[in-house]
## 1
Amino acid sequence: RPFKEIIEEVNALVEKGFQEIVLTGICLGSYGRDICKELNLSFLLGEILRFNGRFRIRLSSIEPSDVTDELIELIIKEDKLCKHLHIPFQSGDNIVLRRMNRSYTREFYLSLIEQVRNAISDIAITTDIMVGFPGETDEGFENTVGFLKAVQPSRTHIFPFSRREGTPAYNLSEQVSPPIVKDRERRLFERTNRFAYEYSKGFKDKQVEVLVEDKRDPSTGLLKGYTDRYIKVYLDGPDTIKGKLITCQITSAGLTPLDSKAYLTGLTNQKTYGILMP
């Protein structure tokens, strides 16, 4: 999209009171390369950050090779830029990555995560992992398990390989049987849920900004929203705070909602009810 068009849209949204802007697109990190040499994602972010008002900017999925030093520096110094990077990886096994035609290796990704966390220690790193890609052996899967243990992402989107006619992967040999794929998916869910909980637990008793969503949780009646680090938060409060950034103090952390009736007695609407990680 033209640079001017993006700037104008963001300005209009901020003026209307929207408090989170998400930049999204296929190959988001390569924005501007087909327009001119001087234009890139970091420059675009810098221009958006000039706008006044209370709002924050979140990046959607960004490829590992597009997480530049310039982008990391922006995240460090700009409070309006969410301390969250979703960097898809798909597999922790180099053989599978080559079969996927990925241009990076597990070693590159691990080095990148180390660089990012050395710069921003509590940044949220989220990722995508595919299980059951053709040729994923037991050893290859265990490499992915070890990879995730090393990265410990704060949230992981796990999905099974699905054959799509017309794609190169459709006719690849060594298709993995559905029962094995399902078991591998389950095992990764168990591990990554624990990583998510351990990360969220680190924010207990701290103050955070939560963007409150427009719908209440049907099981508890509580409002819910996300911090800049993409932690889901449940909180008590009036409908008037929907769609707004609210400063809250985290009071508990867990994998499932707590007993709201007992817990909410006496809470003010500026305190969180807890954190839910799926």
## 2
Amino acid sequence: YTVMRGDTLYSIAFRYNMDWRELALWNQIRSPYLIHPGDRLRLTAPPQVASSTSRNSRPIASSSTNRPASNPSSGASSTASRSTSGTATSSTGSTSASATPAKQTVVKKPKPSDSARAQPPASKPAAVKTSPRSSGNKAPSSTKKPAASSNKAPPKAATKSSAGISWRWPANGPVLRNFKANSTGREGLDIKGDLGEVVRAAADGTVVYSGTGLIGYGELIIIKHNERLLSAYGYNRKRLVKEGEKVTAGQAISEMGQNSSGQVVLHFEIRVEGKTQNPRNYLPKR
């Protein structure tokens, strides 16, 4: 895959149903997990990923600006992404859940792990911060974010503890479409609502993607809850949080928008190590 403007390690892994830790390992990307437009990333494990002889090899990246053909199986895609702010690729490479994301501009250092599936990196990969392109998609406005969205106490709601995390529903409406494994567009829940209705974080976490670069999700927000687990919120009309921002369960993160068919819905997904899960297994019963 050739990195495009606005890509992050998380968004690339999300697009191909991968675990971001494997993507980092296979490409010898270490903290602070910088990727730049033109870098080439492999999407499959290298032949000797577990070999200690790879310790002195170089990172698989280049400054080439050539764009790949659309062929995910060979590690290439023509899908472009955008992020919310900034002028250069960077990382939210914090070493703890409470650390402020660091903005870096240095190139990643090659030092792969000796094991086939390395331990999770100490720091989370960062967002590639770039200026949004002037296509039809409207970039989020940090100056117009409702002041109450971050400071107001989340409303009380039913919760359920699953995978060591306390979950709540991200929206109150009925479910129009349920989860169906291995079915494009059905690997989550579509929750009905009203245009502009507040969408809330389903659990505590860190925003690792806030943008419009993943085709089929519209205005998308991805929240990391631990090293293995992410939740995603698609078809938003407006995003209220930025990459690197800490959120709490019930906090307003976006306003509900419309899908490609014109329906006002929230598309909600939960993924473990890159694999989609049935959100109903995590959310409290209604």
